[in-house]
Design a protein that fits this description.
about 350 residues, alpha/beta, Quinone Oxidoreductase, Chain A, domain 1, Rossmann fold, 2 domains, 7-stranded mixed sheet, 6-stranded parallel sheet, 11 helices
């Protein structure tokens, strides 16, 4: 049977999120019913709810950095049981048959992944609602096991910010001694510093702001470079094997390309849209350098990331909030007024 849950939803692009009661589906044989305890707040939650990308469907319950405990399982579920500590990230299904899915790259499903919210269930056509809610029902294959030693609230942003930065580090073969740079110190950037450092890389933070040195070093940076200082930028020319650009807004990528080593890659993970000013191809051709993109990670890689974080004691630096303050949190997030990720205490909402 379906069951009623409470949460918060956006009802239009220009109205605040508000309390919302809705139905979750009855459990299918391969479903896991999860009591949501914590949910991270991602920039994409804000962009989606305000229809910045032009594809919003309302009402919309955001949230794809979900941590909770298993409440019930379907008849054919074998990997999870009641009480297990689990997570759900940006996807809840995919076609499972295309080349991307066969390669454990469900985020690139050729028939499009089913996203955790603002998407449509592949089986019954109903809208998907995310983790700003007391419960969520998810297909077993898309449920992740969270190491018991990880703090539940701090682990929530790993399901998006963590995997978004872990995946390019893995894909471009970062290892001990690799020279890696990170552009931007926000929710994504601080995770990139922590993960690259744990992999043994020599890590540099590019920032436009003075005063971030102490925090950057605490998070794992070996060096900090002020990207507006031409002399500092010249000193790191032809240096980095990989640059992870986490800036979520349109910005000039060109100053960073000359700092790539020959065969180096700058990978964009924060901004979605046209590059402006245009990208100058001359430095790319001159050093066989590349500008690339990366989107979250597949389910197997996300589990690898969680296990890696468990082994290294990595969680996100968070500010825990009540769901009633979500609209104020969105405004603070727009002003970069959070170190480094908001996480909603959904369990407190449920208890209330």
């Amino acid at each position: 049977m379906t069951f009623t849950v409470s949460g918060y939803a956006a009802h239009s692009a220009d109205t605040p999120l508000a309390p919302f009661t809705f139905k979750r589906r009855a459990l299918r044989a391969d479903d896991v019913d999860i009591e949501v305890l914590f949910c991270g707040v991602c920039h994409s939650d804000l962009h989606s709810s305000r229809n910045d990308w032009g594809n919003a469907s309302y009402p919309m319950v955001p949230g794809h950095e979900i941590i909770g405990r298993v409440k019930r399982v379907g008849a054919s579920v074998s990997r999870f049981k009641e009480g297990d500590k689990v997570g759900v990230g940006c996807m809840v299904d995919s076609c499972q048959h295309c080349k991307a899915c066969a390669a454990d790259l469900e985020q690139f499903c050729e028939k499009q992944a089913t996203f955790t919210y603002n998407s449509v269930d592949r089986q019954d056509g109903t809208p998907t609602f995310g983790g700003y809610a007391s419960r969520i029902v998810v297909r077993e294959k898309f449920v992740l096991r969270v190491p018991e030693q990880l703090d539940m609230a701090g682990a929530a942003p790993l399901l998006c910010a963590g995997i978004t930065t872990f995946s390019p580090l893995r894909h471009w073969n970062v290892k001990a001694g690799s020279k890696v740079a990170v552009v931007g110190l926000g929710g994504l950037g601080h995770m990139a510093l922590k993960l690259a450092h744990a992999m043994g890389a020599e890590v540099t933070l590019f920032t436009r702001s003075n005063g971030k040195q102490a925090d950057a070093h605490r998070l794992g940076a070996d060096h900090v470079v002020l990207s507006t200082d031409a002399a500092q930028m010249a000193l790191v020319a032809n240096t980095f094997e990989l640059i992870i650009d986490t800036v979520p807004d349109v910005h000039d990528v060109n100053p960073y390309v000359p700092t790539l080593a020959t065969n180096g890659t700058l990978v964009m993970v924060g901004y979605l849209g046209p590059i402006a000013p245009p990208l100058d191809s001359a430095p790319l051709i001159g050093g066989r350098k590349a500008v690339a993109g990366s989107l979250i990670g597949g389910i197997a890689e996300t589990q690898e990331m969680l296990d890696f974080c468990g082994e290294h004691g990595i969680t996100s630096d968070i500010e825990l909030i009540e769901i009633g303050t979500i609209n104020a949190a969105y405004e603070r997030m727009l002003n970069s007024d959070v170190k480094y990720r908001f996480v909603i205490d959904i369990g407190a909402m449920t208890a209330a």
